[in-house]
Amino acid sequence: MRNYIIRRLLILIPTLLLLTLLIFFLVRLVPGDIIDAMMAAGGVDVELDRTLLERTLGLDAPVIVQYGRWMGVVPQVEGNFSGVLQGNLGISWWTRVSVVELLTLKWPVTLQLGLMALMIAQLIALPIGMFSALRQDTWGDYIGRSFAILCISVPGFWLGTMVIVMPSIWWGYMPPLMLVHFTEDPIGNLQMFIIPAIVLGMALGGMTMRMTRTMMLEVLRQDYIRTAWAKGLRERVVTLRHALKNALIPVVTVVGLQVPVLIGGTVIIESIFCLPGMGRLLVDGTLHRDEPLVSGVMLVFAVGLMLTNIAVDLTYAYLDPRVHYK
Amino acid sequence: MGNSMTDRSSEGVAGAKRHSQLVSFLIRLAREKPLGTVGAVITLLLLLVGIFANFIAPYGMNEIYMDSLLAPPSAKFWLGADNVGRDVLSRVIFGARISVIVGLGASVLATILSLIIGLVSGYIGGKLDLIVQRIVDIWLCIPGIIFAMIVISIIGPGIWQVIVVLGLSWGIGGSRIIRSAVIGIKENVYVAAAEAIGCPTTRILIRHILPNIMAPTIILFTTRVPNVILAEASLSFLGFGIPPPAPSWGGMLSGSGRTYMFQAPWMAIWPGLALASVVYGINMFGDAVRDLLDPRMRGGTGRYGAKAKKKPK
Description:
The complex is a heterodimer.
Chain A: H1 2-27, H2 33-42, H3 47-57, H4 63-71, H5 99-134, H6 139-153, H7 156-171, H8 186-220, H9 223-230, H10 235-257, H11 259-272, H12 278-287, H13 291-319
Chain B: H1 2-11, H2 16-32, H3 34-51, H4 53-56, H5 88-124, H6 126-140, H7 144-155, H8 159-185, H9 189-196, H10 201-209, H11 214-238, H12 249-253, H13 256-259, H14 266-293, H15 303-310
């Protein structure tokens, strides 16, 4: 098991290198555009300014050198090595603030939103999924399944908008849109996060519910369930202790697979509810063509995703003694 | 019952077999999956509305009535008018056309891409498979919507850009499903036989393997359509999708839809409702198709399974 973890972490190194290549060249496909945008905003159109700007941003160097600088294997314009490998993601072109500094400000919001959404998703998914499986092909099952598909189908950005608009039209109520930190005012903070988290959690909950139902159905057909019934165990013991526990193992994997959906969702939900998180940062960065910012946020998201995947695989081995990684 | 089925197919003329397969599939759908039938009807409705939008819509999609800016729903404008005096109902109807084009276009592209990558990677295997799979691994670490956002910010918004980007993004991810299906198939004796008589690889892939992975391919396609429609709407909502004068359901909810959402909520309600019900319908239909095509999903033995098994008889 220890060897497996070490090997997984070792494979992570080439994967991460490829990832940085992909992100860097994806974001920097058309260089020079930011100069146009900046000059349009600043109202300068002298040729001298362009070369000066290009030199300060390091855009006059070949793309490979730019990549090297970003990674921290080629010295910066100032002559020091400072890049991804040194833990520096560069300076945002638009705001002139270090990307790492921006990220340290924003990540707690995104993490809190994501974790709350995941929890709400499980609260929706597990009871309904279990009920649906136990009452397969009855009206209860149809309603449960329709609800799950409804959760997946309702677009988060529409539901979010409706949740803001409708209460204000009917009762003159507006959900709080100013960020309060958890340490300052825990209740106010949760009040602020709960509605976005429910909107985001519904879509995830729908997927997990379907998986829970399928897995419960699979497990309920197993011989050991028949044995449990034959022993005369109560329904609660059979369904909860024997069936649900085993059905949940693959569900863990699905929760892991949902992290990309979750990240995509935070981008949209943060825009609607004015939460200053990493998703908002990414949208703003993309609109401004702020390349260091966009590649920095993407890198953090992608690394987070990879680590989650490893964690999910290890949890899987821990939960299911039949799984052995060698 | 089984008897009459075989009789019919044996006396049927050549070529009629495919047709009766489709018909019997639809009969099974209607009989076994009431929810799926509802979904199929909604899907069909979307298709018809999308195709015949210009005959159904009471006004043109960009026809402006300056005297009724932000007009509430009335006999003239059933669902109200927007901030520049366009009929919301007509725009919702024309929005269906965009959803149909993007939904089908990007899903077809994604499925073809998944098929190519999955077939080659799964059948040839070895080092190529290893490299391709590592690339797919990395690809899956970038959330699709973020990839689409960034690429469209570079190449500019538009319907074709959205189709290509979404097709690419979903296609590479979906190749996993095709690959595992191919790996399951390629150990069969008939593949070995085809190899032994010297079939070229492309012929084996197309004539021997492709027909046998049709079920997962159809399932992949049907699950892609609603996802792609939602993704297009999300992109348009964020401003990276189909640019404003075109009536995309997602785009109608952003920009002016959000600016005037308190004065004219009908501008935001109807496109979203249309989007939600269409995605709901296609999802239901896709689920039923999967259940009917994938034998693993059917009821088995055991206490709860047995009960389910009795029902269709």
